[in-house]
């Protein structure tokens, strides 16, 4: 089983903690003039998403988490699983609902997403930073409004709801930032 | 290429002034300034310290690998045994594997020894030095036991107290290892560094004294209470600034402590450290009754200037050295 010594700790390192793969966010050495040194770390649990603080005795080893990130194209969902494909090898991977979680509302067929794999199994799906989706429903806005002040809710084809300017209409395609769920612009079809 | 110093010019001036004031403080008290080697034949046995080693070539050298000193303690004690009288040193020291906001592998230590002083008299003198250098309030003194009782409610000197401390720490969910940690000292260090130190020295400099005998280092053990070592530390603003002892002078006990350190090293899977026979021989010849203390000068300068990073007071910290 692979492991890391505390003196290899740094931001981004993936370790196992409480039975869950975690990513180190911050690492601080606590060293008394005389006596045992400690590594005080802030970690993000990659499945629950929780951020917690832990302390290790310096010099100890900690089990490494076999975590990798790969880029795969989204294919389709069968209701239970979301299927992705490696565009080079054509190998397919299915992620369950827990892994896809909030990303479902940003999944566009053929878009390349980042999948986090733990022991080869998907635990997280990150959509592209920007996606383009069609509006399926929004109130008809005022024709003359081009400033986009105020705005109104619009439901997208994936079910996501974003605030769009009043001039944007049902049937149009909009570009959305998936990191904050905000409207960016209209897209010319 | 980052060639410029990380400390401001003002900090470099403050460093020079601090050194001058320290030298005049000791000159007024007839304490002799000494200069001992950084490169020496032996390192420390302390299981929690790690020497940097260097290879030397040259005719007549007794060994090829030498140790950069983590403190000038052993050499200064040999001077004391040779009849130097009270001495001080402003020494560069080097410790491996210590890098952080308050640690640089190479740092400056003020270390001094006072003949005929015990730890209480030495704490008085440190207090005078702090007041003259920092213009701070007079210090207060708290025993190690009182500090633990105040913050954790647990007595560090009883087996029952250690078990309640363990439960207290487990509640704080720092890691699974805490519930099974076999070494009581590790639990004490954990509570001290994480929960007690941050509370110390917030309104005035605070001495913690009467450490557990298991953390005696080179302090003598209390004749009335074998659980207690005559060791102290000084804290200001939650930062550990100095560590001192009513010095162990017994050569036999010194040799035993070296051996005990090495057995801890073995348990931790670390290599055995060569024991400094010259120090033991000096103690056999006779180390006069004395108290000694080592104080981190870079941290003192940080306090004086109100900065939180050691790089703010060093011309070139390790990442620019």
TrEMBL record, chain A:
<dbReference type="GO" id="GO:0005829">
    <property type="term" value="C:cytosol"/>
</dbReference>
<protein>
    <recommendedName>
        <fullName>Elongation factor P</fullName>
    </recommendedName>
</protein>
<feature type="modified residue" description="N6-(3,6-diaminohexanoyl)-5-hydroxylysine">
    <location>
        <position position="34"/>
    </location>
</feature>
<dbReference type="InterPro" id="IPR020599">
    <property type="entry name" value="Transl_elong_fac_P/YeiP"/>
</dbReference>
<comment type="similarity">
    <text>Belongs to the elongation factor P family.</text>
</comment>
<comment type="function">
    <text>Involved in peptide bond synthesis. Alleviates ribosome stalling that occurs when 3 or more consecutive Pro residues or the sequence PPG is present in a protein, possibly by augmenting the peptidyl transferase activity of the ribosome. Modification of Lys-34 is required for alleviation.</text>
</comment>
<dbReference type="InterPro" id="IPR001059">
    <property type="entry name" value="Transl_elong_P/YeiP_cen"/>
</dbReference>
<keyword id="KW-0379">Hydroxylation</keyword>
<dbReference type="InterPro" id="IPR011768">
    <property type="entry name" value="Transl_elongation_fac_P"/>
</dbReference>
<dbReference type="Pfam" id="PF09285">
    <property type="entry name" value="Elong-fact-P_C"/>
</dbReference>
<dbReference type="GO" id="GO:0043043">
    <property type="term" value="P:peptide biosynthetic process"/>
</dbReference>
<comment type="pathway">
    <text>Protein biosynthesis; polypeptide chain elongation.</text>
</comment>
<feature type="domain" description="Translation elongation factor P/YeiP central">
    <location>
        <begin position="69"/>
        <end position="123"/>
    </location>
</feature>
<feature type="domain" description="Elongation factor P C-terminal">
    <location>
        <begin position="131"/>
        <end position="186"/>
    </location>
</feature>
<keyword id="KW-0251">Elongation factor</keyword>
<dbReference type="InterPro" id="IPR015365">
    <property type="entry name" value="Elong-fact-P_C"/>
</dbReference>
<dbReference type="InterPro" id="IPR012340">
    <property type="entry name" value="NA-bd_OB-fold"/>
</dbReference>
<dbReference type="InterPro" id="IPR008991">
    <property type="entry name" value="Translation_prot_SH3-like_sf"/>
</dbReference>
<dbReference type="Pfam" id="PF08207">
    <property type="entry name" value="EFP_N"/>
</dbReference>
<dbReference type="InterPro" id="IPR013185">
    <property type="entry name" value="Transl_elong_KOW-like"/>
</dbReference>
<dbReference type="GO" id="GO:0003746">
    <property type="term" value="F:translation elongation factor activity"/>
</dbReference>
<dbReference type="InterPro" id="IPR014722">
    <property type="entry name" value="Rib_uL2_dom2"/>
</dbReference>
TrEMBL record, chain B:
<keyword id="KW-0067">ATP-binding</keyword>
<keyword id="KW-0436">Ligase</keyword>
<dbReference type="GO" id="GO:0003746">
    <property type="term" value="F:translation elongation factor activity"/>
</dbReference>
<feature type="domain" description="Aminoacyl-transfer RNA synthetases class-II family profile">
    <location>
        <begin position="15"/>
        <end position="317"/>
    </location>
</feature>
<dbReference type="GO" id="GO:0000049">
    <property type="term" value="F:tRNA binding"/>
</dbReference>
<dbReference type="InterPro" id="IPR004525">
    <property type="entry name" value="EpmA"/>
</dbReference>
<protein>
    <submittedName>
        <fullName>Elongation factor P lysine(34) lysyltransferase</fullName>
        <ecNumber>6.1.1.6</ecNumber>
    </submittedName>
</protein>
<comment type="subunit">
    <text>Homodimer.</text>
</comment>
<dbReference type="Pfam" id="PF00152">
    <property type="entry name" value="tRNA-synt_2"/>
</dbReference>
<keyword id="KW-0547">Nucleotide-binding</keyword>
<dbReference type="InterPro" id="IPR004364">
    <property type="entry name" value="Aa-tRNA-synt_II"/>
</dbReference>
<dbReference type="InterPro" id="IPR018149">
    <property type="entry name" value="Lys-tRNA-synth_II_C"/>
</dbReference>
<dbReference type="GO" id="GO:0005524">
    <property type="term" value="F:ATP binding"/>
</dbReference>
<keyword id="KW-0808">Transferase</keyword>
<dbReference type="GO" id="GO:0006430">
    <property type="term" value="P:lysyl-tRNA aminoacylation"/>
</dbReference>
<dbReference type="GO" id="GO:0016740">
    <property type="term" value="F:transferase activity"/>
</dbReference>
<dbReference type="InterPro" id="IPR045864">
    <property type="entry name" value="aa-tRNA-synth_II/BPL/LPL"/>
</dbReference>
<dbReference type="GO" id="GO:0005829">
    <property type="term" value="C:cytosol"/>
</dbReference>
<keyword id="KW-0251">Elongation factor</keyword>
<dbReference type="GO" id="GO:0004824">
    <property type="term" value="F:lysine-tRNA ligase activity"/>
</dbReference>
<keyword id="KW-0648">Protein biosynthesis</keyword>
<dbReference type="InterPro" id="IPR006195">
    <property type="entry name" value="aa-tRNA-synth_II"/>
</dbReference>
């Amino acid at each position: 089983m692979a492991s890391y010594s505390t003196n290899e700790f740094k931001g981004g390192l993936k370790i196992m903690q409480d039975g869950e793969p975690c990513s180190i966010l911050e690492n601080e050495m606590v060293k008394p003039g005389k006596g045992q040194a400690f590594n005080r770390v802030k970690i993000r649990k990659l499945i629950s998403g929780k951020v917690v603080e832990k302390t290790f005795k310096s010099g100890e080893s900690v089990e490494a988490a076999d975590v990798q990130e790969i880029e795969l194209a989204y294919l389709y969902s069968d209701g239970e699983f979301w299927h992705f494909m490696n565009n080079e090898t054509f190998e397919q991977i299915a992620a369950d609902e827990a892994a896809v979680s909030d990303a479902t509302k940003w999944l566009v067929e053929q878009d390349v997403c980042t999948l986090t794999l733990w022991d080869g199994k998907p635990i997280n799906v990150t959509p592209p930073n920007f996606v383009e989706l069609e509006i399926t429903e929004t109130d008809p806005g005022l024709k003359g409004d081009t400033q986009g002040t105020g705005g109104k809710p619009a439901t997208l084809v994936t079910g996501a709801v974003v605030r769009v300017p009043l001039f944007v209409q049902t049937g149009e395609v909009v570009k959305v930032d998936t990191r904050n769920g905000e409207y960016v612009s209209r897209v010319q079809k | 290429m980052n060639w410029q110093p990380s400390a401001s010019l003002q900090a470099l001036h403050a460093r020079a002034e601090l050194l001058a004031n320290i030298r005049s403080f000791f000159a007024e008290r007839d304490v002799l300034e000494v200069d001992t080697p950084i490169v020496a034949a032996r390192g420390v046995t302390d299981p929690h310290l790690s020497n940097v080693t260097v290879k030397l070539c040259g005719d007549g050298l007794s060994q090829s690998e030498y140790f950069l000193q983590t403190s000038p303690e052993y050499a200064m004690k040999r001077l004391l045994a040779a009849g130097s009288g009270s001495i001080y040193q402003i020494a560069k020291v080097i410790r491996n594997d210590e890098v952080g906001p308050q640690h640089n592998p190479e740092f400056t230590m003020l270390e001094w020894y006072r003949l005929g002083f015990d730890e209480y008299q030495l704490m008085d003198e440190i207090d005078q030095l702090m007041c003259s250098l920092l213009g701070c309030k007079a210090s207060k003194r708290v025993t190690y036991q009182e500090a633990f009782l105040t913050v954790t409610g647990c007595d560090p000197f009883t087996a029952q107290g250690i078990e309640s401390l363990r439960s207290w720490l487990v509640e704080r969910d720092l890691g699974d290892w805490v519930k099974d940690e076999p070494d009581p000292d590790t639990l004490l260090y954990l509570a001290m560094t994480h929960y007690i130190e941050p509370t110390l020295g917030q309104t005035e400099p605070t001495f913690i004294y009467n450490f557990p005998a298991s953390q005696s280092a080179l302090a003598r053990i209390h004749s009335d209470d074998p659980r207690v070592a005559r060791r102290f530390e000084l804290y200001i603003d939650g930062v550990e600034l100095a560590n001192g002892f009513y010095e162990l002078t017994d050569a036999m006990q010194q040799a035993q402590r070296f051996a005990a350190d090495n057995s801890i090293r073995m348990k931790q899977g670390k290599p055995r450290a060569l024991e400094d026979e010259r120090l033991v021989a000096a103690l056999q010849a006779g180390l006069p009754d004395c108290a000694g203390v080592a104080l981190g000068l870079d941290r003192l300068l940080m306090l004086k200037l109100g900065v939180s990073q050691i790089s703010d007071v060093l011309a070139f910290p390790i990442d620019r050295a």
